[in-house]
Amino acid sequence: MAVKPILPPAMLGILGGGQLGRMFAVAAKTMGYRVTVLDPDAKAPAADFADVHIARPYNDPDALAELVRTCKAITTEFENVNAESMRWLAGQGVPVSPSGDCVAIAQDRVAEKTFIRNAGLATAPFLPVQTAADLEGDLSAYLPGILKTARLGYDGKGQVRVKTVEEARAALSDLKHQPCVLEKMMPLVAEVSVIVTRTRAGEVTSFPPAENEHANGILDVSIVPARIGAGTTERARQMAMQLAEALDYIGVLAVEFFILDGDELVINEMAPRPHNSGHYTLDATLTSQFEQQVRAMCGLYPGKTDLLRPVVMVNLLGDSWGANGAEPNWDVLLTAPNSKLHLYGKTEARSGRKMGHFNVLADSADAALEQARAIKDMLG
Ligand code: ADP
Ligand code: MG
């Protein structure tokens, strides 16, 4: 299928103006595009780099109409955007990627896991839980497990670990009887993620898998190349690309995997957007995940995804700031010539809030990890 590319200086629209929107805007502006950000927050991090910031709600009819009027293509940076808004925008004839349908699937853990299974890919055993009545009988296939809210969970929020049916029922009550999934606790050997891109013309590429370590439910470091076998690496990339094909996806899709004993791979979840675990691509691949999003939504060829150098990405949370918002000791980072600092322009540092990240490039993943940890320790 021939697709007419959307070229600079076309205006691109993005729903959401957090750090992902900010890095998207930088990539788009670097290539000569213009950017309109829709985000109700007057201090949205992406606003610094946007040509136009519409500070209105995501379902505001005037704001959506302005996007249609001014933008040649539209994307999103966060999955809890109103899928209806995205469907409406697409209905007005503007290319919207990913589609509202794909976003709707990724927003709901039941729809997501069901879709993954139907695509012939593995997930952990899971049970949709609508009401307490679903938590009766023999649940041994799902216990010990994790009760997760079907919607709006992130960074480990909205999750309760449970060992028994009684604990699962108590957890459902703690979660205010929202629709949930009960998922079997898996014995994880490691966690990896793959950022895959599918363009308007249907070309699919994937970035090298990142090996992810979490702290308190929040991504802490990503290590690339992941310290897993070549066969497992290739299978993870293939599975992620298969999922993008099955979704008829356009844009950047992040797929999270659990690695189990015997190098078994199961898909944990997906995010219909660039992902924190793909921030290493800002410095260690020719094309970043944000440029890849621009390329996909504009119908350009995908850029090269090969890893140029082993890299470790470290998240900088608000916890690294001092009690009175005192800045970390940036000296140690900015004087290390093989490291790159990325800050998101957020003025208020709160515990657990993603303020920025840094990438360390070295001869091996282990060397990068050792140096990254040393820098983190000295920061604050
Ligand atoms: P979030 O949307 O908050 O990222 P996830 O479903 O990815 O939610 O869960 C967060 C983390 O919790 C995972 O990265 C993993 O470390 C752990 N986890 C989640 N589900 C399971 C499971 N079924 N078995 C073992 N660990 C899990
Ligand atoms: Mg996750």
Automatic annotation (TrEMBL):
Enzymatic reactions: 5-amino-1-(5-phospho-beta-D-ribosyl)imidazole + hydrogencarbonate + ATP = 5-carboxyamino-1-(5-phospho-D-ribosyl)imidazole + ADP + phosphate + 2 H(+)
Keyword Flavoprotein: no
Its EC number(s): 6.3.4.18
Swiss-Prot/TrEMBL keywords: ATP-binding, Ligase, Nucleotide-binding, Purine biosynthesis
InterPro entries, A to Z: ATP-grasp, ATP-grasp_carboxylate-amine, ATP_grasp_subdomain_1, PreATP-grasp_dom_sf, PurK, PurK_C, PurT/PurK_preATP-grasp, Rudment_hybrid_motif
Residues that, per the record, bind ATP: R109, K148, G153, Y154, D155, G156, K157, G158, Q159, E191, H214, N268, E269
Biological pathway: Purine metabolism; IMP biosynthesis via de novo pathway; 5-amino-1-(5-phospho-D-ribosyl)imidazole-4-carboxylate from 5-amino-1-(5-phospho-D-ribosyl)imidazole (N5-CAIR route): step 1/2
SUPFAM superfamilies in UniProt: Glutathione synthetase ATP-binding domain-like, PreATP-grasp domain, Rudiment single hybrid motif
Coiled-coil segments on the chain, per record: none
NCBIfam families tied to this protein: PRK06019.1-1 (NF004675), PRK06019.1-2 (NF004676), PRK06019.1-3 (NF004677), PRK06019.1-5 (NF004679), purK (TIGR01161)
Family, as annotated: Belongs to the PurK/PurT family.
Role noted for this protein: Catalyzes the ATP-dependent conversion of 5-aminoimidazole ribonucleotide (AIR) and HCO(3)- to N5-carboxyaminoimidazole ribonucleotide (N5-CAIR).
Subunit structure of this chain's protein: Homodimer.
Protein name: N5-carboxyaminoimidazole ribonucleotide synthase
Organism: Jeongeupia chitinilytica
Gene encoding the protein: purK
